[in-house]
Design brief:
The complex is a heterodimer.
Chain A (H helix, E strand, L loop, with lengths): L16 H7 L12 H26 L3 H34 L20 E11 L4 H5 L7 E10 L2 E4 L3 E4 L4 E3 L3 E7 L5 E9 L9 H11 L3 H16 L18 E8 L8 E5 L1 E2 L14 E10 H4 L7 E3 L3 E5 L10 E8 L2 E8 L3 H21 L27 H4 L8 H12 L11 H4 L10 H11 L51 E3 L1
Antiparallel strand pairs in A: 1-5, 1-6, 1-11, 2-3, 2-4, 2-7, 7-8, 8-10, 9-11, 13-14, 14-15
Helix pairs in contact in A: 2-3
Chain B lengths: L8 E3 L27 E7 L1 E3 L2 E3 L2 E5 L19 E6 L4 H5 L6 E5 L2 E2 L5 H8 L6 E7 L3 H10 L1
Antiparallel strand pairs in B: 2-9, 3-4, 5-6, 6-7, 7-8, 7-9
The chains are: A alpha+beta, B alpha+beta.
Chain lengths: 520, 150
């Protein structure tokens, strides 16, 4: 297939012999001699190939569905990393051969004299709201339809994944605890985010035989409309760039489907929480389809190196100022000076720095110009240093306990036994339920009174207003900041207006409606 | 030059970056003339209250807030940070800060294009015991008129 000295483009076609070769772990880019800077990438590639072999063996040995889901996820992440690293190696070889610097061919724009500094990009507190219809709660009481979901994040040739989370209709959002860090990003970075899901139960095994057939018949599409749907799905999922994951090779194992994706760039970076639109990529007919609200909320922070690595003169900010290198009037007798002027309203204050020689002056100016260029490229990331926490090493996936629905576990008998409710909640989450839920106050005034509410009406109120057992406090607002527990006196908590995801048609994400006052 | 490490030093104009490296010019640095009459500099020494350092005033406004509800601004689209309350006898009152003042800068950091929370944070940095504010102030008569109208 390859011959020495003949430059050919390597594209790995799906289902091709080449793809099968590397899937079997036998492919190696040993045809090309590796320069030193590529050995790191080659090492990573080898590591992923070994990981892939391990994942294949694990998948074959799995007996439980949930283990198989984890193993399939690992396998798919390995596959995608392998493809990505191979692609990057290929690009570097090509660039070498063509004599250019090693940059991706897709980079647009004229080659600049200056290149901006690199930075760290960190995405955390990812939350994807779900939008269950009312009927979902009350049908299929006997079984709980569950999904396994995870996020795949790609920046450049680096791919990272979040933990896998089990989702069922009692959850209002999918919340990932992961904190994903990419080093070596440029200000022109593109962070691609993809949500993958798979059914926890065997596909098609949810309902009984005859009922399943009936549902299938009533909901199946005609041949021509089916073809159209599939065609639109393929083109929607593609849109120029194919999904990061390869289709799973195993037959009968769990299948992950891409549910949604989006791409984040520098414009999305903020030292706070923001909501971004998700492009939905699966259709209701897809077995892994989840009712996504259509947004993802996260904190995307960036720390350019120019902000964290000290420069010769400390951290500078670009504002209305001029820096001039000048030789002052001979009368003043101060050569090789650098003047920095600051604007305070209409006042202008100037500081003068003196250097030893023309060369020193030149190198100071050069350092300053590089810094200002970096700041112009990284924009809002240079206003203040955004805190980035080093992600803690991921805990290995724990034994996945079956998460039942609160509705099924809450057999409240007698109906007024509030203690039983709080007992169940406390048992589920242990010490996390520190304060009694506020709705309890309704009943504390009249402890002896029988509760006229039926469990069916109590339970939804529980889930929708104070779903504490499922982790950190959940709000309906898409831009919510997590609660700030620092001991400050606050007149009003600064949250944007709360909206239920159901009022999708009515929600206006733009205009602020508050004018908060805070004591300092 | 007195350079305080950590103190932001504002610097170069971005437009000049499009060109080649700068040539050495001969223009000496100059000092501009009259300052703006309405701008005031207020230096507040924070007061320690238990674990906190307080300034003794409240702020309103921010780019994430609704500017039409600001009773002190002349222009109702102004999303700047305003002083909404000054505690009696507190550090801010002693330093001469007045209700209705618009805060332009805090220790050199711009306050005209910040969110409410960013503004609060810039005033309440635990490492700073003194904050130097640059504020603009309407005339007393105008301020009274404004608060009466809204």
């Amino acid at each position: 297939m390859f011959s020495r000295n003949h430059r050919s483009r390597v594209t790995v076609a799906r289902g091709s012999a080449l793809e099968m070769e590397f899937k079997r772990g036998r492919f190696r880019l040993s045809l090309f001699s590796d320069p030193p800077e590529d050995t790191e990438l080659q090492r990573k590639l080898d590591h992923e190939i070994r990981m892939r072999e391990g994942a294949c063996k694990l998948l074959a040995a799995c007996s439980q569905r949930e283990q198989a889901l984890e193993a399939t996820k690992s396998l798919l992440v390995c596959n995608s990393r392998i493809l990505s690293y191979m692609g990057e190696l290929q690009r570097r070889k090509e660039a070498q051969v063509l004599g250019k610097t090693s940059r991706r061919p897709s980079d647009s724009g004229p080659p600049a004299e200056r290149s901006p500094c690199r930075g760290q990009v960190c995405i955390s507190d990812l939350r994807i709201p779900l939008m269950w219809k009312d009927t979902e709660y009350f049908k299929n009481k006997g079984d709980l339809h569950r999904w396994a979901v995870f996020l795949l994040l790609q920046l450049g040739e680096h791919i990272q994944d979040t933990e896998m989370i089990l989702v069922d209709r009692t959850l209002t959002d999918i919340s990932f605890q992961s904190n994903v860090l990419f080093a070596e990003a440029g200000p022109d970075f593109e962070l691609r985010l993809e949500l993958y899901g798979a059914c926890v139960e065997e596909e098609g095994a949810l309902t009984g035989g005859p009922k399943r057939l009936a549902t299938k018949l009533s909901s199946s599409l005609g041949r021509s409309s089916g073809r159209r749907v599939r065609a639109s799905l393929d083109s929607a999922g593609g849109s120029g760039s194919s999904p990061i994951l390869l289709p799973t090779p195993a037959v009968g194992g769990p299948r992950y489907h891409i549910l949604a994706h989006t791409t984040l760039t520098l414009a999305a970076v903020q030292d706070g929480f923001r909501t971004h639109d998700l492009t939905l990529a699966s259709h209701e007919e897809n077995p892994a389809w989840l009712p996504l609200y259509g947004s993802v909320c996260c904190r995307l922070a960036a720390q350019p190196l120019c902000m964290t690595q000290p420069t010769a003169s400390g951290t500078l900010r670009v504002q209305e100022t001029r820096v001039r290198a000048g030789e002052l009037d001979q009368a003043l007798g101060r050569p090789f000076t650098l003047s920095i002027s600051n604007q305070y309203g209409d006042d202008e204050v100037t500081h003068t720095l003196q250097t030893e020689s023309r060369e020193a002056l030149q190198s100071w100016m050069e350092a300053l110009w590089q810094l200002f260029f970096d700041m112009s490229q990284w924009k809002q990331c240079c206003d203040e240093i955004m805190k980035i926490e080093t992600p803690a090493p991921r805990k290995p996936p724990q034994a996945l306990a079956k998460q039942g629905s609160l509705y099924h576990e809450m057999a409240i008998e007698p109906l007024d036994d509030i203690a039983a409710v709080t007992d169940i909640l406390t048992q589920r989450e242990g010490a996390r339920l520190e304060t009694p839920p506020p709705w309890l106050a309704i009943f504390t005034d009249q402890p002896a009174l029988p509760n006229p509410c039926s469990p069916a009406s109590v339970a939804p109120a529980l889930a929708w207003t104070h779903p504490l057992p499922w982790g950190r406090p959940r709000t309906f607002s898409l831009d919510a900041v997590p609660p700030d527990h620092s001991p400050r006196a606050r007149s009003v908590a600064p949250l944007p207006p709360q909206q239920s995801p159901r009022t999708r048609g009515l929600c206006s994400k733009g205009q602020p409606r508050t004018w908060l006052q805070s004591p300092v | 030059m007195s350079y305080i490490p950590g103190q932001p030093v504002t610097a170069v104009v971005v437009s000049a970056l499009a060109q080649a490296p700068p040539r050495l010019g001969l223009t000496p640095p100059r000092r501009a003339g009259n300052g703006h009459p309405k701008q005031q500099r207020v230096e507040i020494h924070k007061l320690r209250q238990g674990e906190n350092l307080i300034l003794g005033f409240s702020i309103g406004g921010g780019i994430d807030q609704d500017p039409s509800q600001n009773p002190f601004s002349e222009d109702k689209t102004d999303k700047g940070i305003y002083v909404t309350r000054v505690s009696e006898g507190g550090p801010a009152e002693i330093a001469g800060l007045q209700i209705g003042d618009k805060i332009m800068q805090v220790n050199g950091w711009d306050m005209t294009m910040v969110t409410h929370d960013q503004a609060r944070k810039r005033l309440t940095k635990r490492s700073e015991e003194v904050v130097r504010l640059l504020v603009t102030r309407q005339s007393l008569q105008k301020a009274v008129q404004q608060s009466m109208l809204s």
